Amino acid sequence: MKKKYIIASAVIIAIFVIASLLYGGQGDVGETYKVKLGSIKKTVEETGTVYSKRVNTFYSDISRRIQTLNVSVGDKVKKGDVILIYENNYDLEIERAKKQIEAITATYNESVKGANFQEISNLKLQINTIETNLNFAKKNLEKIESLYENGAVSQVEYDEAKNAVTVLENQLQEANNNYILLTQEVSSNVKKQYEAQIEEIMIQILILEKSREQSSVKAEFDGVVTELNFHQGSMTQPGVPVVEIQDEDNLGIYVEVLAEDAKEIVKGMAFNLVKNGDIIKELSVDRIYPKAQSKVSDLGVEQKRVRIEADLDSTDYKLGTEVDVEIVLQNKENVLLVDKDALYEKNGKKYVVVVNGNDQEEREVITGIDDGNYVEIISGLNEGDIVLVEY
Q: d(Cα 30, Cα 134) in Å, to the nearest integer?
């Protein structure tokens, strides 16, 4: 009899435990989340690098000895400053050519009375020099105009380049007028004979002056020396950068994002600098490179990445500084949000479990933006719905 009581008690206890699990346990459904309205944004987060949008890197086309070096890495330079001078003897060659012109001038003055050939030869040399400078100024204007259209130079620099062309054109016109007046009384045959000799030597002088100009490196804008690979007295190597100058006042920030993320990025999107999750500066996407490049990640994985740039309207950042960047792909206000852990997939569709008292209901939902923590709910839930997060 006692044994029957024990068996009956065990059965009763088992029934009680099962009932508790099936019914009484419904009151403790695990962690839940209450669907609410809020803001959400989809972003791409990468480490950005501060860079200069104006960089001049000078190379030597041949092996040459550096005669004079005027700078060190970190030195600030002004536009037109001579950075270095290569070893050369162009000054002596130019002086010899000028002496040849003097000799021809003396001979001409003996042959032609009443004409000052010294003035004629000097004026012709002046015309040739102006023409050379004008051609250079026009080429420089084309380059500046292209940079101006891309926002790489200021309006002031663009206006200066245009004004330089206008001034040289006026100077050339005036010199040509003076030349015509000065040579009206000179016999055309005699003039051509001596002019041919003078022009030949003047061409030699222009070539020598151009070579002398190329034998030195000058700063093309105010900046800082960021790279210097040779020292005074050393020989340069073709293809190896000699010196690099960067503009510290014309900065930008670039990031390299995965090619699949770059497909969603367009010019004008928010490009925010962040620190500890807070936005410290708001910029916008200004340039998207058209071609992806292969990069190796820190884990050694080869990836295709696209460079994205934003202009930086501040000089508070140093060249090469790294900053955290978020590019905002989408941003929505006043939308339904749910914890991402509440979602699960089944047969290619997304579901949540809605808790209503002791009842649980599996419900299909359509989702939108996912920020990694929360997901936008487009349909399937209402504000205030309770969903199960931990099953």
A: 82
Report yes or no: 334 and 39 within 8 Å, Cβ to Cβ: yes
State if pTM tops 0.90. Answer: no
Instruction: Give the model's pLDDT for residue 214.
Output: 77
Which two three-digit tokens encode residue 193? 């004979």
3: pLDDT strictly greater than 50: no
Between the alpha carbon of residue 158 and those of residues 132, 168, 286, 372, the distances in Å are: 21, 16, 21, 47
Locate the domains of the chain by residue range: 1-29, 44-53+247-331, 89-214
Q: Following DSSP, what letter does each residue of 165-218 receive, concatenated?
A: HHHHHHHHHHHHHHHHHHTTTS-HHHHHHHHHHHHHHHHHHHHHHHHHHHTEEE
Strand 287-288 with 293-296, pairing: unpaired
CB 305 within 8 A of CB 256: yes
Is the pLDDT at 259 greater than 70, yes or no?
A: yes
Instruction: Select 44-53+247-331's CATH number: 1.10.3720.10, 2.40.30.170, 2.60.120.10, 2.160.20.10.
Output: 2.40.30.170
